[in-house]
Amino acid sequence: MQLSEQEIVRREKLAKLREMGIDPYPAALYPVDHSTKQIKADFKEGKKVNIAGRLTSRRIQGKASFAEVQDSEGRIQVYFNRDEICTGDDKTLYNEVYKKLLDIGDIIGIEGELFKTQVGEMTVKVTNFTLLTKTLRPLPFAKTDADGKVYDKFDDAEQRYRQRYVDLVVNPDVKNVFVKRTKLFNAMREFFNSREYFEVETPILQPIPGGAAAKPFITHHNSLDIPLYMRIANELYLKRLIVGGFDGVYEFSKNFRNEGMDRTHNPEFTAMEIYVAYKDYNWMMDFTEQLLEHCAVAVNGTTQSTFGDHTIEWKAPYPRVTMTDAIKQFTGFDITGKSEEELYAFAKAEGIEVDNTMGKGKLIDEIFGEKCEGNFIQPTFITDYPKEMSPLTKEHRDHPELTERFELMVCGKEIANAYSELNDPIDQRERFEAQLALADRGDDEAMFIDQDFLRALEYGMPPTSGLGIGMDRLIMFLTNNPSIQEVLFFPQMRPEKKLNVDLNDDEKMVYELLKKSGKVELNALKSDSGLSNKKWDKTVKGLTGKKVAKVEKTDDGLFIDLV
RNA sequence: GACUUGGUAGCUCAGCUGGUAGAGCAUCACACUUUUAAUGUGAGGGUCCUGGGUUCGAACCCCAGCCAAGUCACCA
Q1: Looking at residues A32-61, what average pLDDT do you find?
Q2: CB-proximal positions of chain B, under 7 Å
């Protein structure tokens, strides 16, 4: 393994500590009794505290030193004074251990008492300290000047995502996004639980991937010797539970879709789905806007949030616009009663990319997606989707071509999708069959037929309304992050390629020559090798870099030898 | 999948027309008892993403590839 200079220095310090009888990774608990936040909130001069955290900066001035310690809630300044820490004649703990063997990033425990410096900074005067964990790699803490300007912020997206642990340690704003994420989940649970809806878990490995139109990941179960799919949605399982007699069930479900990745799509993502018996989609719209107002306040303390240039107002109620009206509003075209041919011709004329695998529903969806979707910035319910696009949704009570479905649009993106759930088992079977016909026509996302789900419906599901919310997207809007990777702890990345430590062919050849010759003058070996200047240079650098050979400069010239 | 941009020290970045690889912070050494981007002096630290090519000579030019970000396409 190639170590940088700083890593080598830290390993040497580690060994030195052990020689001195200091365990750099002690087993015993450290009796923390204050967080940095508690100290600042309830500051009393002279109060004794025990804190623990990482050393994030140091300002050493001879016999005294200021440093900062960061725990999970923030930072506080600590003051190390040689004669306070080392009351006797032996000044080793300060001079050696603190000044020379500790590094920025190390995790230490501090026993001390509170005071304010001449400048008024709340500070812990250290009376004793304990090394709790030595860190072997330098952590890239940023520095902030008096004007609040940040220097050397660790902000390369690739490095931050690949090493999220580093990102979290050094970028408090990043950590805050994830704190808010969890607040969002907690707020939703609280909202549902207070209404006595029941949190459940349903299978992630499914024999039939249902409940959405998407490409699944496929895996294989060895004992059963069958293919299994990772779920693309949990809808059909939750509805089975409504059949089973629960009045309201919900689940935060990790879903998996084997599709493209970009700043709004990760192969695994989290949805929340809730189903409530004896309700319809009108009720669900009221419920949704109350839910989101509640969540916005729980996360940000206010009903408003900022996303890019937009200020989003989450306060209920939200406007409700039918899809037909939305299309009429933005294109002037009335889709009511139009045939597939007429819709196709209109889409074509508007310059929308369409092809003949598309049925009526998909054409309407394309027109809406192209011409309308992006215009809805403030939370808006778009209602009454075409039947063909909604195979799990009850037919609209007044318009047989439409369904009782809504999507909630925010900043031109869908964040929620809800129906009056289709509970007519015969209609449901026909809708699945229509999906099969679409699949035959070339739509590779059309749904499979889930016979067991149909059997469940045949036993009778009460009228039910269901809602799905894309949790990742919602938290993006609530934390002003345009990229899904910023709201996932560990977004999917291509694996890092491992460095090749084996010798390549040229290096092997030179290695053999060197083995025969022993220590030899550099240029002589170069001509023996027959390599070009560039290849020679690469090869020798490769060998020395891998600690196989070494180059020495003496008065007689440059020599190379095996290590 | 297409296009654009980027990949140089632990971090953030500079690097001219192709001519010995730079800065700040970090690290190391010395000084320094209330600092706060501490300060002063000195030192060390590099697979310039990888592999080819052009050239006397490549971080830089050319070709191929890898990784990422952004835009678009596809897609909830």
Answers
A1: 96
A2: 1, 9-13, 24-29, 31-39, 44-48, 51-58, 66-76
